[in-house]
Amino acid sequence: xxxxxxxxxxxxxxxxxxxxxxxxxxxxxxxxxxxxxxxxxxxxxxxxxxxxxxxxxxxxxxxxxxxxxxxxxxxxxxxxxxxxxxxxxxxxxxxxxxxxxxxxxxxxxxxxxxxxxxxxxxxxxxxxxxxxxxxxxxxxxxxxxxxxxxxxxxxxxxxxxxxxxxxxxxxxxxxxxxxxxxxxxxxxxxxxxxxxxxxxxxxxxxxxxxxxxxxxxxxxxxxxxxxxxxx
Length: 231
Prior knowledge:
The protein has 2 domains: 2-125, Rossmann fold, CATH 3.40.50.2300; 153-227, Orthogonal Bundle (Arc Repressor Mutant, subunit A), CATH 1.10.10. The chain is 44% helix and 22% strand. It has helices at 11-23, 34-43, 60-69, 85-94, 106-129, 158-168, 177-185, 193-207; strands spanning 2-7, 26-31, 48-52, 76-80, 98-101, 132-135, 138-141, 146-149, 152-154, 175-176, 217-220, 224-227. It has a 5-stranded parallel β-sheet, with helices on both faces. α2 (34-43) runs parallel beside α3 (60-69) and α6 (158-168) packs across α7 (177-185).
């Protein structure tokens, strides 16, 4: 049984989501403001957090930032009534795993939830197969989500880590920006390729010894990006 925390101040939406999540064999916990939601997510293990953007006391973006800052990597599906581009980019770059704009269909909601559960299950399987990846001075501890270079820890955001881990597991394999959006952010996010570019640039600035002579994250011209397979 999956444990799901719903952080939402609209009781009708809470009830609707609870009914359908229960049909997926989920155990539901509920919070109606951001502070309560943060405390519950900080103190208890969940398989998924459904987090509204506009909340009393603490908004969803701040809840997300604080959880990721405490290295709580529970998948987060963010909900909002605002569809502006800046909201989507902020939500995803803060560490949310997926993003759904109200009003949404129950079918789409359930599809997103199932996709998050599938990715989480795949990640756990991969982590049991290989807990540490080493490429010269670069070390990636998959279960602890830690990255270090020459023994010095490198602080990555959740999406930066996910991008690095995805490519590092398959060195030499080129990924298009659309593929990276789909695999890391969870579904096709057409029109937001610049989000991938900005994450790659920040990731490179943190792990590359020489940004003008790349070692780890290479550009596949005309395609996208790949992890160096000659290390």
